[in-house]
Structures are given as structure tokens and as C-alpha cells.
């Protein structure tokens, strides 16, 4: 008779404990049972320095402990005799008390303490007079948390009390954040839709979560040395962003805003939010003693594969608000302007997205509370940045051709802006014909434009204003096609290019709401010759010179142009200046010329004289008229190399442009002056 073979118990979740001497000196072990507990426990007291390793449990990273002395409590029913390697179920109690030069390693965390208690079954611990370190790949260094007590609440979660945190590796750090409580934990984040390529789960096909060390603290004081600088009741952020959430601080004082305190804050850190890759979000709180308190925010983002599609994108957004209790000071004749509203603000958002096949999508939206707000509070942006607009623009470019469609509307009533509902453009650049003897360039455009003059200032007696003469309340179909043929050839070192260009344009409404058809033609010859000399031995670190090249170009362009309609009746649907220049001109007519603008100072006539609208692709094609002119230029470039040795690039170190224009019919084309001369130096 065969007796059944007893089934062997299969243990899948087990714990393995191994003990080693901490040094070359063997450790000492005392082993005895404890009968005062249920179930009974086996106690081991180990002295002389010991290194203890715990591993084997699925999902548990190895715990590596070292101490001068340890005491171990475990279930005495199955473990009575001491062994340097023990295997037991993960549910078996196993508690450890450590004392003296304690070092504990688990995953990316490294801890030191004088005394500690660790419960292996619950994965919890208490450490006294302790320090925690964790390696941050993003910073390439450790983050340190020092505390009177550190508690491990669970795997990868620690609470430090009466603690400070720093990124400094010095024993006594030069800077730190002192906190009553610091909570460190591992968080798993899934990349957002626009973060680009991410590692995918082979089973689900979804992005794999990424582990990050996260730090949350309360009652925080930022200290340099032992001097407290800032206090914040709550901070929560990735551990690599341990620094205080204030990112900018500026003090000032002037006659316009009074005493000023301007601050910028990292909003992700301040609110304890996870920062998506490629994003930045800052808050702004400002105090102006003459004006009030302003609040705002700004941010930007960039990434790839938005919503799962193949693309690269970027964007930014801004907002600001202040309840303004003061008046505007915008210059000599506008010292005390009362704003049209005390609630002043602006909103602005820009987005750009590039997709395959040369597709680009751009969108913008912007709104200001009143005419002078940007000039007063953000003067640099007003003078130097592009105008804030509201539009949607789609473009495709392939090789030498492109097309685009734009829709645009005006939200700020004081602007001289055309609403395009919509407008389409088609470009073809340098298409070779007849075996490369002739190049053809073309630009065609059609759209429905709605042009309306900007509104007058709130207080025109102080803020003088005259509408621009070339902006009218006009709307309707606007269409144009412009084509040019060029036949370049070399005559020795000289490049000569005869050309002919023709245009047909239509405006449903001009300045007097009349229909306008215009035919325009231009023919001419341009030429250029270039010479250069290289000085490779020129080097001067003070002037940032690393070699020097002098390049010189002589240019000449003679053209004869004729238009069937003169410029005076055509409304300017395509603006050629931004708001800063237009607002200046709206005041210039009265405060400089007494109400009547002399024609030689009309910006459109100046643009015609300089040829601003003659090019096939020039966006403001209105700016042409009858003209005969010879343009000459002598251009100099001093160039050097800059950048790292393996990626050096050429840049202009100094430029000099000498230009002159000769008008054979000076009375018609240049107010009786035969020559115009311009000199440019940079």
C-alpha cells in the first residue's frame, strides 16, 4: 500500500534575513526566549557591530542596516536557534532595535541615527537624532533632511519633526529651510499628454508612471546662515525643488508708483502641485504705495505629441490685475492722467504648434482694460514687444511655396487694427523657369477686412489725439495678386538682375468707402559686388574678438514704377506699425504740428520713398505709387567667431551701412529733394 506523499508548502511571500559582521571583528550573540508575550518571542542581542540585510518579499526593496548594537524580536515558535541566515513568512513579526552609528539604506534613501526601531512586518520605523538623504538625478546631488525624530510611516514615506532641509552637502549648511514637520514620500506621476515621448507599458500601452521624491513641509522659515529671511506656513513640491517658492524679489521707489515691492512665486510649489514636464507657472504679488496691490500670474509650456498627435508645441500666458488708486504719468505733456477705470488688468495667451508636412498653427488672445495700462505698468513690453492680438493663423510651407489663412478680431477698442474674417495668402518664391534662366516669385491674397479707427482717449483734453489720416471706417473684400520675374546673371564679379513686377489689386471700400481697382507695374535692374578680407590672427578677449573678417558689398538698384491709382485714396488695411508708434503719431499731429500733419512726415509717403512696399512678399502692399529712383548702398560687416570650441558660429561684431537714393523726378517723388542719405551703425 502506497501512502500519499505530503504536499510541500509553497511560500511565495517570504522574508530573508542575513547578518554579517560590520568589520573584521566577529559580533557577539545572546539568544533567549521571552515567555511574557503571546505568542512567545525569541530575543537576540547582538553586539560588536553588525550588518543586517532584509530582502525577498515581493515588491520590497532590500533594507540594509548597520549598527554597533541591535536587539531582534521575532516569533519564538519557529525560530529558536540563532542563524546568520533566516527565512520566514513576511507576516512573521520581526522587530529590531538599533543603537550606535546607525546607517540604514532602502532604495534611494539613506538614513543615519543614534537610536532607531524598525518593524519589518509593518515597514515602519522611528529614528532619533537622525538625518535622511536621497539622491536626485534631476539635480545630480543629494537632498538632506536633519531632524530630532524621523518616522518611517510606510515604504518610501517618512515624517521628520523639528527638521531642516537643504541641498547643501556641508555638515553645517549655509542655507536651509527650517520646518516643524517635513513629510517625504515617493509619488508616481503619469506624463501629461503634451510631455512628448514616454516609456509605455507593454501590456496597456499607456505611459509608465515615473517615481519622484516629494517633500511637504509646514511652518517653514528660509534661513541663510542662522538668519531667517522668509516665512511660509506650507510648502509642497518635488524634492529637487526644495528651494523656497519665492523666485523673485525687487524693491524700488519713484514718483510714479511710490515705494514698490514686487515678488514672484513658484505656483506649483506654493500650491503643492506636481509640475508637468516642460511647464513653468509663476504668481506675482506687487505692492505700490501710490497705486495699490497688484496680483498676476505668468507661465509657459512646451512639449510634443499634444493629444497623441505628432506635433511640437509651445505657448505662454500672462494675467495681471490692480485696483488703481493713482493717476498715470506718461511723459512731459501727460503727467497726471486719470485712467478710465480703477479696475485695471490685462490677459494674454499665445500658442504655437508645428505638425508634419510643414503645418503651423498659431493662436493668440489678448485684452487690456484701458488704453494706457500697458504704457504705464509694462512700458518695456509696450515699446519693444509685438502688439497683443486675438487671432488664429494656420500655415503650411513646403519647399518654395506656402499658404496661410488668418482670422483676427479686435478686442481693444483703442487700437487701429483690421479684423480679418478671414484672409488667405499664397506664396511662391524663386520658382525656376526656362532652364533656370528666369525665376518667378508670386504672392496672392484675398480676404474680408473690417477696418475701424481706434477710439479716442478717455480725457482728450489732457491726452491729445488726432485720428490717423489713412485709417477709416471701411470694410469689404480686399484682394491682390503680385508677380515678379527675375533673370540674374554674372558679369565677372558683378551680379546683375533685371526684373519686372506686376500687380492687380482691389478694395471694396477705400478711405471714402469707394471701390478701388489698382494696376501697378515696376521694372528695373539691380546689381551687387562683394569683397572680403580675413584677419585670422586678430584676438582680443576684452572686445570678444576671435579672428576678424571684413566683408563689403556695393549695391545699386534702379527702378521705374507706375500705379493706376495714387495712394491717397487707399485705406491702410495692412498695418505697418505697432501700437507704440501709432499712439505717438496720434499725439504728434497736435502737440508738434498744431493739428495738420505735413505730407513729408506722413509715414505712408516715407514708406513709399524708401520702398517698404515694393517687394513681392511685403505684407503692406498698399504702400506703392508712381516712382523713379536709383538706390545705392555700401555695406560693411566686421565679423568674428563666438561660442564653445566645438560649436563656434559667425556673428556680426560691427556693421556700417551707407545708403543714398537719387530721385530723377524729385518734385513728384521726394518733395523736391534730389537725394536721400541714410547712415546706420551698430
UniProtKB/TrEMBL annotation:
<dbReference type="InterPro" id="IPR050218">
    <property type="entry name" value="LptD"/>
</dbReference>
<dbReference type="GO" id="GO:0009279">
    <property type="term" value="C:cell outer membrane"/>
</dbReference>
<dbReference type="GO" id="GO:1990351">
    <property type="term" value="C:transporter complex"/>
</dbReference>
<protein>
    <recommendedName>
        <fullName>LPS-assembly protein LptD</fullName>
    </recommendedName>
</protein>
Amino acid at each position: 500500500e502506497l501512502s500519499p506523499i505530503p504536499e510541500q508548502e509553497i511560500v511565495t511571500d517570504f522574508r530573508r534575513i542575513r547578518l554579517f559582521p560590520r568589520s573584521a571583528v566577529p559580533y557577539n550573540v545572546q539568544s533567549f526566549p521571552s515567555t511574557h508575550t503571546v505568542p512567545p518571542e525569541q530575543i537576540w542581542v547582538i553586539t560588536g557591530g553588525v550588518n543586517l540585510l532584509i530582502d525577498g518579499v515581493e515588491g520590497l526593496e532590500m533594507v540594509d542596516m548597520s549598527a554597533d548594537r541591535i536587539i531582534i524580536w521575532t516569533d519564538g515558535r519557529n525560530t529558536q536557534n540563532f542563524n546568520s541566515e533566516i527565512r520566514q513568512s513576511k507576516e512573521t513579526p520581526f522587530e529590531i532595535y538599533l543603537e550606535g552609528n546607525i546607517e540604514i539604506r532602502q532604495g534611494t534613501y539613506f538614513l543615519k541615527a543614534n537610536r532607531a526601531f524598525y518593524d519589518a512586518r509593518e515597514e515602519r520605523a522611528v529614528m532619533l537624532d537622525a538625518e535622511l538623504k536621497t539622491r536626485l538625478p534631476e539635480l545630480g546631488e543629494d537632498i538632506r533632511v536633519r531632524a530630532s525624530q524621523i518616522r518611517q510611516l510606510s515604504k518610501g514615506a517618512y515624517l521628520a519633526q523639528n527638521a531642516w532641509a537643504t541641498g547643501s552637502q556641508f555638515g553645517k549648511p549655509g542655507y536651509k529651510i527650517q520646518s516643524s514637520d517635513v513629510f517625504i514620500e515617493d509619488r508616481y506621476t503619469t506624463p501629461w499628454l503634451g510631455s512628448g515621448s514616454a516609456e509605455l507599458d507593454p501590456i496597456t500601452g499607456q505611459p509608465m508612471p515615473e517615481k519622484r521624491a516629494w517633500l511637504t513641509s509646514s511652518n517653514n522659515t528660509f534661513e541663510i546662515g542662522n538668519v531667517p529671511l522668509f516665512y511660509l506656513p506650507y510648502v509642497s513640491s518635488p524634492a529637487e525643488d526644495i528651494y523656497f517658492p519665492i523666485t523673485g524679489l525687487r524693491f524700488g521707489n519713484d514718483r510714479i508708483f511710490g515705494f514698490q515691492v514686487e515678488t514672484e512665486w513658484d505656483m506649483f510649489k506654493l500650491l503643492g502641485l506636481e509640475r508637468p514636464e516642460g511647464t513653468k507657472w509663476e504668481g506675482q504679488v506687487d505692492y505700490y504705495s501710490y497705486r495699490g496691490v497688484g496680483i498676476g500670474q505668468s507661465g509657459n509650456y512646451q512639449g510634443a505629441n499634444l493629444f497623441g498627435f505628432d506635433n511640437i508645441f509651445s505657448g505662454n500666458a500672462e494675467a495681471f490685475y490692480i485696483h488703481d488708486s493713482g493717476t498715470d504719468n506718461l511723459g512731459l505733456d501727460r503727467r497726471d492722467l486719470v485712467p478710465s477705470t480703477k479696475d485695471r488688468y490685462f490677459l494674454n495667451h499665445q500658442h504655437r504648434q508645428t505638425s508634419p508636412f510643414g503645418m503651423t498653427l498659431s493662436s493668440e488672445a489678448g485684452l487690456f482694460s484701458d488704453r494706457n495700462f500697458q504704457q504705464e505698468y509694462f512700458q518695456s513690453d509696450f515699446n519693444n514687444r509685438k502688439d497683443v492680438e486675438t487671432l488664429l493663423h494656420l500655415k503650411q510651407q513646403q519647399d518654395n511655396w506656402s499658404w496661410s489663412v488668418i482670422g483676427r478680431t479686435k478686442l481693444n477698442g483703442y487700437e487701429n487694427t483690421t479684423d480679418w474674417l478671414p484672409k488667405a495668402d499664397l506664396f511662391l518664391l524663386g520658382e525656376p523657369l526656362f532652364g533656370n534662366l528666369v525665376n518667378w516669385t508670386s504672392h496672392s491674397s484675398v480676404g474680408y477686412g473690417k477696418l475701424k479707427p481706434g477710439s479716442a482717449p478717455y480725457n482728450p483734453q489732457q491726452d491729445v489725439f488726432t485720428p490717423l489720416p489713412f485709417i477709416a471706417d471701411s470694410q469689404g473684400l480686399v484682394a491682390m495678386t503680385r508677380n515678379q520675374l527675375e533673370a540674374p546673371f554674372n558679369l565677372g564679379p558683378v551680379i546683375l538682375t533685371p526684373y519686372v513686377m506686376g500687380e492687380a489689386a482691389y478694395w471694396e471700400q477705400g478711405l471714402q468707402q469707394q471701390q478701388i481697382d489698382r494696376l501697378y507695374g515696376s521694372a528695373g535692374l539691380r546689381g551687387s559686388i562683394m569683397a572680403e578680407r580675413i584677419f585670422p590672427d586678430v584676438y582680443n578677449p576684452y572686445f570678444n574678438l576671435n579672428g576678424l573678417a571684413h566683408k563689403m558689398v556695393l549695391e545699386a538698384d534702379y527702378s521705374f514704377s507706375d500705379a493706376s491709382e495714387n495712394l491717397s485714396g487707399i485705406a491702410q488695411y495692412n498695418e505697418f506699425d505697432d501700437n507704440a508708434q501709432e499712439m505717438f503719431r496720434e499725439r504728434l499731429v497736435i502737440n508738434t504740428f498744431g493739428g495738420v500733419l505735413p505730407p513729408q512726415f506722413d509715414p505712408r509717403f516715407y514708406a513709399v520713398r524708401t520702398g517698404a512696399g515694393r517687394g513681392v512678399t511685403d505684407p503692406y502692399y498698399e504702400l506703392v505709387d508712381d516712382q523713379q529712383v536709383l538706390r545705392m548702398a555700401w555695406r560693411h560687416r566686421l565679423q568674428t567667431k563666438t561660442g564653445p570650441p566645438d560649436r563656434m558660429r559667425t556673428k556680426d561684431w560691427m556693421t556700417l551701412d551707407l545708403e543714398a537714393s537719387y530721385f530723377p523726378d524729385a518734385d513728384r517723388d521726394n518733395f523736391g529733394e534730389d537725394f536721400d542719405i541714410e547712415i546706420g551703425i551698430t
